[in-house]
Amino acid sequence: MCTSCECCKRRDEYYYRNLDDEKKYFLVLLIGDFRDEMIIPEEIVQRFKRDILGEIKLETRNGDNHAIVVAKIEEKRIFTVGWRQFVANYDLQIGDLLMFRYKGNSQFNVIIFDKLGREKASSVVLDPFIPRVQDRGNEAHEIGSSEKMDVQCGRCNNWLEYHYADLDNENKYFLMLMMGDFQYEMDIPEGILQRFKGEFPREIKLETQNRRSYKIGVTENKLDICYNQKLVFSVGWGKFVETFGLQMGDTIVFIYNGNSQFSVIIFDKHGREKALSVIVDPVPPPVQERRPYGTDIVKSSHFYPQPMQRQPFIVVNGLPVESPPIEGQWRAQLEMDKSCQGSRAAINTPPSESSGLRGSLSFEHGQGVRDVPVSSNIVKRKAKLSSSQKEQLRDGYITAHKTKLTLAQKDVVKQKVQSLESKISIFVAVMYKCNVESPFFLTFPNYYAQKYLGEEARMHLELLGVKWQVRFPNNRGDKKLKHGWKQFVQGNNLKMGDICLFELLSNQSTMVVYVIPANDANVD
């Protein structure tokens, strides 16, 4: 990847600007007199295709919605009516940062960080004793600048911090600001280490939005005569900094995916995503030789809470797709895909509940997902593998029984699977008409379902850092994903010919999804 060539920068910027707005993030640093009004930086406005004006909705991770009016004053876009209450609700201070992602229909997801790079617990944890924002008649036109705001006390903040600490690491965002001497080593802020539950791994993998992976060593660094220790990004960090041209004031948001892997979103000092970390290079670098992660770990957290159910929050699909694939290119494969022929009619399928699911950064309470043994009164035949599936498993993945990958598709899939280094086989699905149009469903291979999915009816699909709740309609061995799948497809703009890779995390309640757009697969 080239960081010095101006031609490459202009090309990346061109493709980035042509992405759908739903695939873009932007970051705003709170400075100056922001409490009553806030100007949206012009550098961010220029990155959007649509104009940001009128009433919008900001949705925090706990599901609260806030109506804000964006006015145009002297060619500037300004948060006005409703902004003051939003600031008060989350006790926003100078130095706090807000990460936005457009979700369509004048709605934005927003992640709130304090000046130390920690999420504001009040924007993540849902306190049942605090009235929900949408229950307060909190429409923007009803909010006056003199309205009295609710202020949380110290006990409330402690309660929220306690329950935030209780979340799994996969449900938390971390933010690091590039400052000081970070070119070759980078101190991991103490506030982040305290928020990371358990032990911080000695070697991690950072994956950017264009699916490039970078291994970074984590070492101890003695600071002073008192032997106070810091953890620092060391081996591999300098190359990462050089690759993306990181400068003073740039920011990285980290999203833990388990298995010592983090997805990262990289912003410049203006709060714009680094296009180089989003746009896919048509000439990918050679695949690195696979090797296991280091097993040494360092104790780094002051919290040891009980594990909770994974909550929604951050994986990657910022790709320059200029037009959808022609249907005829995939018709032959579509006709061969048994899962799309509807030959297996669903029996006793409950009424659809998908319309009530939100494809956003929502927050749920509940106990952790339990391993449920197979019911003794259900007799299941052992799944048989085709010769092509046996060959695929040797390469670390599996497709549906009748799916046929072209040579070009096999190459790009194998490269991606190798970069993931997953201990569990990756399920690979080519999107056919039945997957992305009515009747909207996805069938997992019997072998994969029986070996990995068990009897759980509910799980989460995670893409671009956002989790989507989905359900299987019954507990048969051949799992057909229906409830919530339509929302996932439409929310992520999946098209016929796209290739989806499903990586099951160790907790077996979440699958991270990686998308290879049809145009990137170079179909034969």
Automatic annotation (TrEMBL):
Annotated localization: Nucleus
Q: What are the protein's UniProt keywords? A: DNA-binding, Nucleus, Transcription, Transcription regulation
Q: Which SUPFAM superfamilies match?
A: DNA-binding pseudobarrel domain
Origin organism is: Triticum aestivum
Is-annotated flag, keyword Aminoacyl-tRNA synthetase? Answer: no
Q: Any keyword Thylakoid?
A: no
| Name recorded for this polypeptide | TF-B3 domain-containing protein
Q: Which SMART domains does this UniProt record tie to the protein?
A: B3
Coiled-coil portions: none
Q: For the TF-B3 domain, which residue ranges apply? A: 23-116, 171-270, 427-519
Tell me a Gene Ontology molecular-function term this record carries. DNA binding
For this protein, the record's Gene3D superfamilies field holds: DNA-binding pseudobarrel domain
Origin: domain of life: Eukaryota
What the entry lists under Pfam families is as follows:
B3
